[in-house]
Design goal:
By secondary structure, this protein is an alpha/beta fold. It has helices at residues 5-15, 43-55, 66-86, 100-110, 133-142, 159-165, 188-197, 217-220, 245-248, 285-299, 303-321, 349-358, 371-377, 393-410; strands at 24-25, 28-29, 31-32, 94-97, 120-124, 145-149, 170-176, 201-205, 224-228, 239-243, 261-264, 269-271, 327-330, 339-344, 361-362, 364-366, 382-386. It has two domains: 5-32 and 302-410, Aspartate Aminotransferase, domain 1 (Alpha-Beta Complex); 47-299, Type I PLP-dependent aspartate aminotransferase-like (Major domain) (Aspartate Aminotransferase, domain 2).
């Protein structure tokens, strides 16, 4: 484990920017290991939200007065910040949504309306419910065929099966970049290239990758990419759908209302240009502005250092967990990020999670919105710990002590 004084100082400097990490839970120092569910927020994001409501609250895109123009400028500036960070071809390809789920539903509703009976959509067996249910709804509504790419026992996609499933009927491949349950990092470059070879579009669920990796949309060459702001140090209720402009321009609007129109009459309505065609109604203005601030925080991080730090945490935690009797880690892919799902013999994950909470540890227990994946492993759920840039080896040491205590009590 890298352990230089300079490195420790950089992590402590990052931790100091997150006020929630200094509090106590049940009389113990909080250790937050639930980052796959939501990340904590730095002062800069919190203060940006506060400043908006104090000094510039107004509706956007419509008003000629100062506050409206200031809010519009800041909202669109956030779109530009995010588009530049992600290396989108143009900021108009950045569509603000409510989050990952909303973005996937937008694609299912809009792009899905362009599909015909018998067309095929491929998803993997490790998908979050938000990347399963919208396609099932589309299957029942339009007669498309939903096909499931199998996975291996270690939590890796079966790429041989994927290659065999691709055909001229495949119109969309929708897969997670990183599994929220297993931590598996999928070979999305290969997935995208092979889908494009048969004429299929590709949607990448980036909810779990946006905070761990430097995303370059031009290099990925995916057709759609979605993520949630609250996973990447931003507020809840805001997210992004990226889409290539040539595809978005062909797609019909997802919702109708204000701001997504060019001209309305009772005879005919014409629609606005990108990105506004897909942003009906008053948006989450402060959410968009604060998400831009979250991306400013991201830009301040050294991603090479961040990746090394998180991988060190993952390796250390897995090694130490494997020393405990009856521990079974679910998801042992060769290429993983800092997520560990595990069970302890026949002990119920909920019981262990409850006892960990009593000792100040925030972990996630349950099926993690991946019930088909739980069925694959024949388990009801897991205990999940997930790390971020502000977590430390010392926290893992404390967690291991608390876990052993919980196991002793339940045994």
């Amino acid at each position: 484990m890298k352990d230089t004084a300079e490195y420790k100082a950089s992590i402590e400097n990052i931790r100091a920017q997150f006020p929630i990490l200094s509090q106590k839970v049940n009389g113990r120092d909080l250790v937050y290991f639930d980052n796959a569910a939501t990340s904590q927020k730095p002062y800069t994001v919190i203060e940006r939200i506060d400043n908006y409501y104090k000094n510039e609250n107004a509706n956007i895109h419509r008003g000629v007065h100062y506050l409206s123009q200031k809010a519009t400028e800041d909202y669109e500036s956030a779109r530009n910040i995010i588009g530049t960070y992600l290396n989108a071809a143009d900021a108009s390809e950045i569509i603000f949504t409510k989050g990952t789920t909303d973005g996937i539903n937008l694609i299912a509703s809009s792009y899905g309306s362009m599909l015909n009976e018998g067309d095929e959509i491929l998803i993997s067996a490790m998908e979050h419910h938000s990347n399963i249910v919208p396609w099932q709804l589309l299957e029942s509504q339009r007669g498309i065929k939903l096909r499931i790419i199998p996975i291996h026992e270690n939590g890796e996609i079966d790429m041989d099966a994927y290659n065999e499933m691709l055909n001229s009927k495949t119109k969309l491949v929708s897969v997670t970049h990183i599994s929220n349950t297993l931590g598996s990092i999928n070979p999305i470059g290969e997935i995208i290239d092979k889908a494009h070879a048969v004429g299929a579009k590709v949607l990448i669920d980036g909810a779990q990758s946006i905070q761990h990796d430097q995303i370059d949309l031009k290099a990925l060459n995916c057709d759609f990419f979605v993520f949630s702001g609250h996973k990447v140090f931003g507020p809840t209720g805001i997210g992004v759908l990226y889409g290539k402009s040539e595809i978005l321009n062909l797609m019909p609007p997802y919702q109708g209302g204000g701001d997504m129109i060019e001209k309305v009459s009772f005879e005919k309505t014409t629609f606005n240009v990108l990105p506004f065609k897909f942003e009906a109604g008053t948006p989450n203005i402060v959410g968009g502005i604060a998400l831009g601030e979250a991306f400013n925080f991201l830009k301040s991080l050294n991603f090479n250092e961040l990746h090394e730090h998180e991988m060190n945490l993952l390796k250390y935690a897995e090694e130490e967990l494997n020393k405990i009797d009856n521990i079974r880690i679910i998801g042992t892919a060769k290429n993983k990020t800092s997520v560990i799902s595990f069970n302890v013999g026949e002990l119920h994950p909920f019981d262990i999670g409850t006892l960990l909470d009593k000792q100040g540890f925030a972990v996630r227990t349950g099926h993690h919105c991946t019930q088909p994946l739980m069925d694959f492993y024949k388990i009801p759920g897991t205990i999940r710990v997930s790390f971020s840039v502000y977590n430390t080896k010392q926290e893992i040491d404390l967690f291991l002590i608390a876990l052993k205590k919980a196991i002793d009590i339940l045994s």
